[in-house]
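A favour, since you know our structure tokens better than I do. Go ahead and set the record down below.
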Amino acid sequence: MKIDITPEIFFQTARSGGKGGQNVNKVETMVEGRWNVAASGIASDEQKKIIAEKLANKITVEGFLLIKSQESRTQLGNKDLVIKKMNELVNTALIKKKSRIATKASKASKEKRIEGKKRNAFNKEGRRKINPKDY
């Protein structure tokens, strides 16, 4: 089940580095998107808890999910990138991981492993120095 958090994201702009020439120094093209996870009306309490756990390193002390973008030369392009990144992050965090089913090694694979160990031991036995007292 995918959720779209776009209406609850609020944006801040700042001057960014990178491409743009003289334009970089006067236009605020870097966009910072913030979404208050705890105060969200879109996500359920259970979803909020999962998001808070899985995205803890991207959530600020105040409880905001923070994403920045300065890849594009335009503010609108960066805004679209922030929206896309945020929605992807939230939706991938909500995907449940499949539990691993433990399996046992087959009898043939166990025998093959032991046979290999025996072969290895035989090779190493052949590398030993010969003791004259044994003969």
Summary: Strands lie at 10-14, 30-36, 64-69.
